[in-house]
Amino acid sequence: MSMKRKTTDVLGIPISAANFSLALDWVAEDFVAHRKGYSCFVSVHGLMEAYKTTQFAECYAGASLLFPDGAPVAWVGRGQGEKHMERVAGPEFMLKLFGDDRFRDATHFLYGGEEGVAELLRERISEQFPHAKFAGTYTPPFRSLTEDESNAFVETIARLKPDIIWVGIGCPKQEQFMQQYLSRLDTVLMFGVGAAFDFHTGRLKDSPQWVKDAGLQWLHRLVQDPKRLWKRYITSNSQFLLALLWHKLFKPLAREQASIQPKIDKVR
Fold first, then answer.
1. Name one GO molecular function term (predicted).
2. What pTM was estimated for this model as a whole?
3. Residue 15's beta-bridge partner residues?
4. For residue 220, is pLDDT > 50?
5. Residue 51: what pLDDT?
6. Residues 6+ apart with CB under 8 A from 130
7. DSSP sequence for 129-157
8. Residues 130-150: what's their mean pLDDT?
9. Could you read off the pLDDT of 147-163 as tens digits, one per residue?
């Protein structure tokens, strides 16, 4: 029997009203049913990309599950009545899935990272979870794959048949990659986990739990990589707050006008 999966609207994106426990239950259900799909972990940055770009919003529309990656996204859901909703971040979800007995026999493939990072991640996860089974790894170029590279990768996956592919090439590239390749790959589940490759290999230092709970993980990452991330975080965070304010002020008015209009037409 399929479990009901509630979502909550955050700037027009149906975010899964989940916590880690629910997220793992829903993914396990898809895994057992061999239900093919990809999952995204939606941060403020991702939300604003989708808010501004229809093409990227379509990546989220094609996803099986959209988890609230970041406390601010979960706060919006809780403010809409989903009291159990919590941040479900990709890097933490990855480790929780490897530690869940329901996925003990799953085979995994790692796609992403700089040269040598995927192999190091496989070693680190194997040390923590000796039962983990890896079908392979692939370090993609920073550009898009050429046709020959794309065909070779699809053939590799067809030969290895991993159950789960973890994609760590950052937002928005990983979401676009999963949308483009899911139908071509002989796999069941794909997850876009962003910085998990760097966190779990020690290339980046993860935030303390209180920083995550306070919604300040972005600041912790900004301090570590200010040159690359300052524009993304400052711009995305301010745009997010403005967009929430606009929806708060004007969306109720738009709904009220829509409900009044049929009555006006009837009078006329």
1. hexosyltransferase activity
2. 0.82
3. 8
4. no
5. 84
6. none
7. -TT-EEEEEE---SSPPPHHHHHHHHHHH
8. 96
9. 999 999 999 999 999 99
Mean pLDDT for all residues in the chain? 84
Task: Write phi, then psi, for 62 (nearest 5 degrees).
Answer: -90, -5
Helix (H) or strand (E) holding 167, with range, is strand 164-168
- Find out whether the peptide bond into 208 is cis, omega within 30 degrees of 0: no
Is 218 within 8 Å of 237 (Cβ atoms)?
Answer: yes
pLDDT over threshold 90, residue 139: yes
Sheet order of strands, 65-68 included:
65-68, 37-42, 189-192, 164-168, 107-112, 133-138
Q: Between the CA of residue 195 and those of 121, 140, 201, what are the distances in Å?
A: 12, 15, 10
Q: Choose among 42, 50, 55, 29: nearest CA to 189.
A: 29
Q: In a 3-state reduction of DSSP, which class is residue 28?
A: helix
Confidence category of residue 79, pLDDT binned at 50, 70, 90: confident
Residues forming a β-bridge with 14? 9
pLDDT single digits (tens) 106-120: 999 999 999 999 999
Pairwise CA distance, residues 184 & 186, whole Å: 7
Residues 152 and 94: their CA atoms lie apart, in Å, by: 26
| Distance from the Cα of residue 51 to its chain's centroid | 16
What residue spans define the domains of the chain?
7-229
